[in-house]
Amino acid sequence: MKAVTISLFGFLLVIAAAIISFCDGNSKVLCIGSEGQALLTFKQDLIDRSNRLSSWVEGEDCCEWHGVFCSSLTGHVKELHLGLLSTSPDVYAPAAEWDAYFRSKLGGKINPSLVDLKHLSFLDLSNNEFGGLAIPEFIGSMKSLTYLNLSWANFLGAIPHNLGNLSKLHYLDLGLNSLFEAKTLQWVSGLSSLQYLGLSLANLSKATDWLQATHNLPSLVELHLSGCSLNNGPSPISVNYTSLAVLDLSQNMLSSVTWIFNLRSLVSIDRSSSGVEGMIPSGFQNMSFLKFLDLSWNSFSSSSTLNWLSDLNQLQFLSLNSVGLQGNFSSAIGNLSSLTHLDFSNNQLEIEPKYLESLCNMREMDLSNNTINHEVSEIIESLSRCSLDRLESLNIAFNKLSGHLPNQLGQFKTLAYLYLNRNSISGPIPFSIGELSSLKVLDISYNRLNATLPQILGQLGNLEHLDVSNNMLEGNISETHFSNLTILRSFWASNNMLTFIPNPSWIPPFHCEGIGLGNWRLGRQFPQWLQFQRNMYSLDISHAGISGVIPTWFWNLSTSFEYLNLSHNQLVGEFSYLPISWIADLSSNLFTGPLPQAIFSDLGDLFLSKNFFSGSLFNFLCNSSNNLKVLNILHVESNLLSGEIPDCWENMPMLEVLNLGNNSLTGKIPRSLGSMRLIESLSLRNNNLFGEVPSILQHLVNMLVLDLSENQLTGSIPAWIGDKLSNLVILNLRSNNFQDYIPDQICALNSLHVLDLGYNNISGAIPKCFSNLSAMATNLNPHVANWFSRFYPDNSFYFGALLVMKGRVDEYSTTLGLVTGIDLSVNSLTGEIPKELGYLMGLLSLNLSGNLLTGKIPETIGNMEMLESLDLSMNRLHGEIPSSFSNLNFLNHFNLSYNNLTGQIPSSTQLQSFDKSSYIGNHLCGPPVTKNCNKKGEAPDGTNGGSSGGKKTSEVNWLYVSIVLGFVMGFWGVVAPLFLIRSWRFAYYKKLEQIGDKLYVFWATIGM
Fold it and tell me: Which pLDDT tens digit goes with each residue over 880-891?
């Protein structure tokens, strides 16, 4: 017996040795030939643009191929890992990096040869691009599969129900595709071994049995049904997922899922974006194992309580982002010592800093966009009590933080992401910030930080993105500030008062893709150090004092800039080509020559205004080589462009803003402008356009701003403006030759804020229906300004307008939406001022001067308490100044001169603060005019409101007579013809303008 035992033991030793020898590679098992051939057949139908499968070569061992894993005992292919494992680029990445990512995705077709892999248990094709193919039916016959992942691969169509035959499946993920028309989920009931089921974004709106079908899976641990259009439907009497730990029902409009609270074993719940309203349910307090809870993007009542949170002492992840909460919930999170991720962003919450002291495991905290009104030092100091070695991300942007950044900030050694932007933090940037050795992103923009950038920032070797823009930083920046920033990818610092003029031979250690140095002082020479940057996608060096020609190497920094802002410098030269794919701002420079003849076909916004571009618009707009189909904004005002406006605007169907103002364009307004149905702002002001306004413009129903002022347009004011352009906010037809009366249809413009018809030949009465201009009838809501505040990276505005307000011409942009005014001055309007004008309570400026208006000033004008400017001068008004004018407390421009007004100027009002010239040419008395009133409150006969009231004299002062005669002769000989003959006037001022332009170019060229 002993001998038998020894022999058996020896035999086992031999077997063991053989196995060890086999496993250590001395006796390697090769790929099965038929399976290798099946894989090569599978590869033939794939599109592999990045050559990921280059190792799949016939004759080579397929077990060594990329993504292929074989059994070490039999050589059969067991696993196929072809999912794209690399994560997508971050939001800062340029287009080239995103393109490389998408190129790495496999595409094409899935060949049925996979069926020949009889022992395949693991198949991952996730995160690829299969172009809308249906999920192959044959996958349902691969009975050995235990793992199947087809998520995020752009499959389209119905889910094959024969996937229910894969009874060995433990893991099934078909999510993030475009799967639809699933009328039932009963096919999953046969997957008795399933532990993970992912069907996110599959359309299950008709699958009313989803709850019953998934409830019957005894081994199910994770269920992901995000964005599946689920409905409540009939549910079983008792829901009891015996093994379920993770439940994702986000992005579904399920009004009631109270059965969740019976699943006490749940570890993770995601109910974000589910349209849940009312009070936050308190049933979560009994789920003691809960570690992950996401209720974000719902609409809970602001009076909801979070007291139940204190019972979830194992909670690690909590998100209540954008749920409408208000008030102070600090105490609710004070006991959550296990919490590692907290997101309370986009609410109206206040936080007491002391309750943050116990969150010792915190790694990521997002409290952005709330109403936190504390000193930033209080929050930093509270977090420093016990989370110094764990906190990785802190976001408190868009709050009301104040005070200075404390030195304790430098103690957070693991902090990688810090967002404190859009607050009111002041003081210097602490020197200790240079100790944040793990920092990757630092955003402290839009605060009140002063002093200068500390040089220690240059030691942050892991820093990738730095944003200090829109502060009050000042001083000189040196090369030391960037000494160790070798992986810096973006640097935004515009709108400070910093100076950076490095040594001409300086080579920066970084290769940034985005740089913003607007409003810096960069020296007169174009920054030479920029030539060492590569693959730039965004650059702002506007308002930088740079002059001269743009060097040729500059255009090689990028195959195409996405955003380029060189505006407000003294750059010279010509352009034939603009390699910019999104926004180009070259305005306010000294560029000359014709407009660029070639631009990128995907250019969206182009700003070339306030330069010296000349010639015709035709080659730029109508040249077939310029594809302008996606152009959204075009600003070329204030140049030297001439000729007619081309009639090819149908080439720009996406144009929303067009400004051709202040050039020398002639001819009629082209009819093809009416084809731009998306246009919102059109300015052709200050050109030499003539003829009538074409009626085809009535199709531009999205128009907000229409400015045709300072041209030679004739005819009547089109009635269709009021009938069709109902969204108009600004209508400016000033300084033309429009005739006839003001059409009543204008009164239908309920959104109108500014109406300027001044300096025309309009006659008739002022329409009483102006009282229907409702946007002028109420105090303005500041949010109206949002119509005109379309930001791009340097915070300039797309909308703007030149308006005559308070007696002068000003450009309005940021406040354009807050301006209201009516200007009908210098026409031939007759009749009385309608009392109905007084109903426009929100009006800020009213100018009716230089007309033939008669009658008394309506008492209702005094009800326009918001008025800042009122001009009724040079009419034929009579009677007294209404006593109601004492209500006009905001007036700062006021003129009643040259009428026939009588009586006493109302006393003890703001009217006494204006110069007597505001009343000259009337019969008024009392301050500020020098003539006192008699006992009846009237001016003595024969006196003028502007006279001195001194003793009359019969002596003739011949010096004064000669002055008067000289004035009369000079006026009628020179000035009057210019005033009365329009063509002379335009020729005279255009000649002056040309002389001024030539002098400006001359002095700019010689460097003055």
Answer: 999 998 888 889
Residue 1008 has pLDDT above 80, yes or no: no
Triad 115, 198, 169: Cα angle to 5°: 40
Contacts 24+ apart (CB under 8 A), 694-699: 694/668, 694/669, 694/670, 695/720, 696/671, 697/669, 697/673, 698/674, 698/723, 698/724, 698/725, 699/674, 699/724
Give the tokens for residue 339: 């919490």
Cβ neighbours around 767 below 10 Å, total = 19
| Residue 59 CB contacts under 8 Å (≥ 6 apart), including other chains | none
In DSSP notation, 785-825 reads GGGG--B-TT--BS--EEEEETTEEEEESTTGGG--EEE--
- Parallel/antiparallel/unpaired status of strands 514-516 and 538-540: parallel
Confidence band for 789, pLDDT divided at 50, 70 and 90? very low
Q: Which of 530, 539, 452 is nearest to 498 (CA)?
A: 452
- Token output for 503: 């040594």
| pLDDT more than 90, % of the chain | 56
Q: In 10 A of CB 337, how many CB atoms?
A: 15
635 in any annotated domain: no
User: Is the CB of residue 675 less than 8 Å from the CB of residue 651?
Assistant: no
Biggest CA-to-CA distance, the chain: 160
Q: How confident is the model at residue 994 (pLDDT cuts 50, 70, 90)?
A: low
Give the C-alpha separation, 973 to 971, whole Å: 6
Write the CATH number for 69: 3.80.10.10
Q: Is the pLDDT of residue 808 over 80?
A: no
Share in percent of the chain as helix, strand, coil (round to 5): 25, 20, 55
**What distance in Å separates the CA atoms of residue 520 and residue 499, rounded to the nearest whole number?**
6
Q: How confident is the model at residue 799 (pLDDT cuts 50, 70, 90)?
A: low
pLDDT tens readout for residues 615-638: 999 988 887 666 788 899 999 999
Q: What percent of the chain has pLDDT over 70?
A: 84
Average pLDDT, the chain: 84
| Residue 47: inside a domain | yes
Q: Is residue 6 part of a domain?
A: no
In-domain check, residue 842: no
Question: Measured between alpha carbons, how far is 13 from 16 in angstroms, rounded to an integer?
Answer: 5
Total domain count, the chain:
2
- pTM of the predicted model, to two decimals? 0.79
Query: Among residues 811, 869, 874, 866, which one has the least CA distance to residue 839?
Result: 866
The pairing of strands 598-599 and 633-635 is unpaired
Q: Please tell me the distance from the alpha carbon of residue 893 to that of residue 845, in angstroms, as a whole number.
A: 9
Structural domain that includes position 52: 32-82+95-127
